[in-house]
């Protein structure tokens, strides 16, 4: 994919995500999407704390921009089953952790961007 003259690496996230982000140091990276990545990691009973720490470590070494796409799953009703509630809670924590590290956070609602956190 090419956007505004930049080469982007776009990937659906499976187990090797942190490695892919870490090795693509000099090009912008689009990570689409963290929600799918988390559900895939949960389905294989991965150690989520270790997986998230690996992803954060890979983001630390970046010299080029990274765009992380994630769903906001906490706006709806409380799920009626334990797995769905666990997923919703874990996704919210993942979003919070990565938003705290981000320079900019944009929530898109009905196709309209809402600036949550502005780059300094």
Structure description:
- It is globular, with a radius of gyration of 15 Å.
- The protein contains 4 helices and 7 strands, in the order βββαβααβαββ.
- 42% of the residues lie in helices and 22% in strands.
- The longest helix is centred in the C-terminal third of the chain and has 20 residues, at 82-101.
- The strands form 3 sheets. A 3-stranded parallel beta sheet has the order 3-4-5. Strands 1-2 form a two-stranded antiparallel ribbon. Strands 6-7 form a two-stranded antiparallel ribbon.
- α1 runs parallel beside α3 (48-60).
- It has one domain (2-117): 3-Layer(aba) Sandwich (Rossmann fold), CATH 3.40.50.
- β3, α1 (17-23) and β4 form a beta-alpha-beta unit.
- With 120 residues, the protein is α/β, with parallel strands linked by helices.
At a glance:
With 120 residues, the chain is of the alpha/beta class. Helices cover 42% and strands 22% of the residues. The longest helix is centred in the C-terminal third of the chain and has 20 residues, at 82-101.
CATH third-level topology: Rossmann fold
Low-confidence stretches: 1-15
By secondary-structure content and strand pairing, the structural class works out as alpha/beta
- Structural Rg: 15 Å
Fraction of residues in H or I helices:
40-55%
SSE layout and pairings?
Blueprint: E1 2-3, E2 6-7, E3 9-11, H1 17-23, E4 29-32, H2 34-43, H3 48-60, E5 66-69, H4 82-101, E6 105-109, E7 112-117
Parallel strand pairs: 3-4, 4-5
Antiparallel strand pairs: 1-2, 6-7
Helix pairs in contact: 1-3
